[in-house]
Specification:
With about 90 residues, the chain is mainly alpha-helical. The chain has 2 domains: about 50 residues, no CATH class; about 30 residues, no CATH class. It is built from 4 helices and no strands.
Length: about 90
């Protein structure tokens, strides 16, 4: 999985942005690494207050160490719970 901290204008649809990002990066990965590369379906997106940008940037920077202890599914579950977002476990896998 990948973490991206981006600033989008209200006219941007996150679904369209991620569709395009997945398409372009998938093409690049297939050309440069593994022709079998595919993204999983779906995505998780969270809004971030401008005052939290620096802490989110630090959080993203420590992902390699973080994932030595926590799986990406555990991480997503923690983020959803912290944000008070209800979810169905079957969509996390």
């Amino acid at each position: 999985h990948v973490h991206i901290l981006a600033s989008l204008r209200p006219v941007h649809c996150i679904a369209d942005v991620l569709r395009d990002l997945k398409k372009e990066s998938s093409t690049w990965a297939k050309e440069n690494f593994d022709r079998r590369f595919t993204w999983q379906e779906g995505y998780a997106a969270f809004t971030v207050s401008p005052t939290a940008t620096d802490s989110v940037r630090r959080y993203i920077a420590t992902q390699e160490a973080h994932h030595r202890k926590h799986s990406s599914v555990d991480e997503l579950r923690e983020l959803l719970n912290a944000a008070g977002i209800e979810f169905d476990e079957k969509y996390l896998l």
